[in-house]
Write a structure and sequence with these properties.
heterodimer, A: about 375 residues, alpha+beta, seven-stranded antiparallel β-sheet, about 25% helix, about 35% strand, globular, B: about 375 residues, six-stranded antiparallel β-sheet, four-stranded antiparallel β-sheet, about 30% helix
Chain lengths: ~375, ~375
């Protein structure tokens, strides 16, 4: 064999013959145990970590809790009304309305809520020490504050003031969340129902306010925002000057008060069984797949793979193909609301300027019924006119 | 001394020009394949697979072809250079330049090896007013078990990236004589996100407090991967506690054992710095009418044991101190609005062979200049003789 031929023929053997190189470059033998080799003592200059954080706190996510049933005894003569996203239980007797609201977190705190109720009656706001002097007691096993105010009631909207109204309510704040039991109506009728009101309050069992599921930040509701009041349905401008987004709201949809992080919020009907809102985030908003799976996770639906994503229905919106997401299940929303038989319809449009999210969620039947209107709404989105 | 035939053959093989050609062609092939692979897998994964490996499987359609990795090829090239270009080459003044060039190339390969084995790359990212006495890897993870000591410092027990990656369905058992418990790690995921476990589907990983780790495909940019694993503490009395750990968890997992609080955390590998850097001021100027920065820099205070000094680190003015080089690398958030608080990112490199490529290039240049100058002189002499 010629000299060069011999040399080249030896190349594979050389590659194998240099197995010793393996040990130099690395690639250790896998093992099922490891004895810690490196121990350091360090001084930390960054903020000290928190001890005893829960898994939800560690992952900065809200973990859905099993939906717990509320139980109560409806006073004689009172009629029950269907619960809504914001009302765990709702009652009516004559012109008197009474309902229970459960919120995650502190719901804005005692002072903000007491004064919010007073402002609805046109009363002066109380100082902290005056709030501390309010009656207290127990509501659903927690320390609670009892309020009893009279004034001209105008609700959240400030319209249609009704004089001679009385508001009686329990407010409790616990680690599991905040609870509000509120009765409003003409003063004489409320006075007549006071015993029933307190009997109802005593009869409530279980139904701890549940934490909500939202593994990603960016949609938190601001402090002091509450949804236990009729929303203010005013004229619905078809654009948002802050974002430059415009739209055409489907017939019958009602615009809800402004909420932080949202461009616009609608209820699909007056019963507020489903709401639809638009959010705009910079960049890809955390990624299409992650957001789709976050939404599905809020209803307990299994996550999709990237391949599944390509199979999803699309809708023309904002000059691109928005991806439509559907899910049904038990909904754990971002502000503590729980809907057991819920539906979700969402659309995500990724634009060079950012990502637009349109999300409709609520009772399953309401969401399904509003599906065509939702798609129409998505198609109507565009630059502000 | 007369060599045995096998020894002679081996020496001939390692010093042959044929082997050089094969190795250089293989290196070219790896570079080409790596460049193509980078489209889908990103720089970090490609470097690992093609250039820092011993062998690899290249998928061509349904077929997997075994190829030598960059580690083998460059190792052989080094041997080939040393044996063929320095030991066996006929030593004379005529080939002095060539030999010098070979020394330079060998130095370049050694510099690459030293960087691979002994360098540390990472970053310090902080807002104004914040300090750092360590830098973090972009890619490598570590599990740390720590406790607060009586003097306010922290004792950290570290489990390196290579060990974490072994944790599959079968757990890896982590022990230390100084720990009052054993740790078991399982289901390592290079990229994942925690998801609430809903009632309408099942998962094949543990569910802890209603949450499971959802494995995701590796990101093309490896630094965007968020690793996760399941951890179980086995106490001396046999009691067990289990949780999931995620690479960007806000707080560590807390465990009580032997009357002490212990924390378990998964984080990017940290490397201590021999000084503390505090970001005093971050400055940036944009091109007019755009969000594109034309210039940005960080004013920092560098504090050692006894003294501190102000330093400005800008794009072309790194800080070199204590064997480290700190470069102004980036800033963020990239979508920050005017007036919003910004953070600064300093790339940090500890590389004992930092300047070796420069020295190697100088040596190579000198060798080539010497060689070609000699050839030129000889050519001129011949031509003058003919004339």
């Amino acid at each position: 064999m010629p000299k060069r031929g011999r040399a080249l023929a030896g190349c594979p053997a050389t590659l194998l013959g240099l197995a010793g190189w393996t040990g130099v470059v690395g690639c250790g033998e896998p093992s099922s145990s490891y004895s810690i080799q490196e121990v350091r003592v360090v001084q930390r200059v960054e903020e000290a970590p928190h001890w005893n954080a829960t898994l939800a706190e560690r992952f900065a996510m809200r973990v859905p809790q099993p939906v717990r049933k509320l139980a109560w005894e409806t006073p004689a003569g009172w009629s029950e009304e269907p619960p809504t996203n914001m009302r765990s239980a709702s009652f009516r007797v004559g012109d008197v309305e009474c309902y229970l609201t459960e919120l995650g977190g502190d719901g804005g705190g005692l002072a903000a809520n007491v004064n919010r109720w007073r402002s609805q009656l046109g009363l002066e706001l109380l100082e902290p020490e005056e709030i501390g002097d309010l009656d207290s007691g127990q509501f659903m096993g927690e320390a609670a504050t009892l309020v009893d105010f009279e004034g001209t009631y105008s609700g959240m909207s400030g319209t249609d003031p009704r004089g001679g109204y009385r508001l009686v309510g329990w407010l409790s704040f616990a680690d599991q969340g905040a609870r509000f039991l509120k009765m409003t109506g003409p003063a004489e009728q409320v006075a007549a129902e006071l015993d029933n009101f307190h009997a109802l309050a005593r009869s409530f069992r279980s139904g701890a306010a549940t934490a909500a599921a939202d593994p990603h930040a960016g949609h938190d509701h601001g402090p002091g925002e509450h949804h236990d009041e009729p929303v203010s349905y005013g004229d619905s401008p078809s654009s948002d000057p802050r974002t430059g987004l415009g739209w055409s709201a489907p017939s019958g949809w009602l615009r809800a008060p402004e909420r932080s992080m949202r461009v616009v919020t609608f209820h699909t009907d007056a019963s507020r069984t489903a709401e639809c809102y638009v959010t705009l985030l910079g960049g890809d908003g955390g990624g299409l797949l992650d957001n789709v799976n976050r939404w599905r996770g809020q209803l307990g639906a299994p996550p999709l793979s990237a391949g599944d994503l390509r199979e999803l229905e699309t809708v023309d919106m904002l000059g691109v193909e928005g991806v439509l997401v559907e899910a049904t299940g038990s909904y754990s929303g971002m502000s503590g609301e729980q809907v057991e038989n819920a539906g979700l319809l969402g659309a995500v449009a990724t634009l060079p300027e950012g990502t637009v999210f349109v999300k409709m969620v609520g009772e399953r039947e309401a969401v399904q019924a509003a599906g065509p209107a939702f798609r129409e709404f998505c198609r109507s989105l565009g630059a502000a006119r | 001394m007369k060599l045995a035939p096998i020894g002679a053959r081996l020496l001939g093989l390692f010093s042959s020009l044929g082997l050089s050609c094969v190795l250089l062609c293989t290196l070219g092939l790896l570079t080409w394949l790596g460049t193509l692979a980078q489209v889908e897998h990103g720089l970090y994964e490609v470097q690992k697979k093609y250039f820092e490996s011993l062998f690899l499987l290249q998928e061509v359609g349904p077929v997997s072809i075994p190829l030598p990795g960059g580690g083998v090829v460059m190792g052989l090239l080094f041997l080939n250079l040393i044996i063929g270009g320095l030991i066996r080459m006929r030593r004379s003044r005529a080939v002095a330049g060539v030999m010098l060039t070979h020394v330079g190339i060998a130095l370049l390969l050694v510099a690459g090896f030293v960087k691979l084995r002994y360098s540390q790359d990472g970053h310090v990212t902080f807002y104004e007013g914040e300090s750092a006495n360590h830098f973090e890897s972009y890619f490598r993870w570590e599990l740390v078990v720590w406790r607060e000591t009586d003097d306010g410092s922290y004792q950290e027990f570290l489990v390196p990236d290579e060990v974490l990656r072994r944790a599959g369905d079968e757990p890896v058992r982590i022990t230390s004589a100084e720990l009052p418990f054993e740790l078991e790690l399982s289901h390592w995921m290079g990229n994942c996100a925690p998801m609430p476990k809903g009632p309408m589907f099942e998962v094949d990983v543990p569910v802890v407090e209603g949450v499971f780790l959802d494995e995701k495909p590796r990101a093309a940019k490896a630094e965007q991967n968020l690793a996760g694993t399941y951890a179980r503490v086995v106490h001396a009395d046999g009691r067990r506690e289990e949780t999931a750990l995620w690479g960007v968890q806000a707080q560590p997992w807390t465990v009580s054992a032997a009357g002490e609080r212990w924390a378990v955390d998964l984080r990017k590998e940290r490397y201590p710095m021999p000084f503390t850097v505090r970001l005093e001021d971050f400055m940036k100027e944009d091109h007019p009418g755009t969000n594109m920065p034309s210039w940005f820099s960080s004013d920092v205070t560098v504090s050692g044991d006894e003294s501190s000094r102000p330093v400005r680190i800008s794009m072309n003015q790194p800080l070199r101190d204590g064997g480290l080089v700190l470069y102004q690398a980036s800033w963020g958030p990239s979508n920050a609005r005017p007036g919003e608080r910004l953070f600064s990112t300093l790339a940090v490199v500890r590389n004992p062979a930092d300047q070796w490529p420069l020295y190697a290039c100088i040596v190579i240049a000198l060798g080539l200049v010497a060689h070609f100058a000699k050839r030129l002189v000889r050519y001129v002499r011949v031509e003058v003789g003919r004339a």
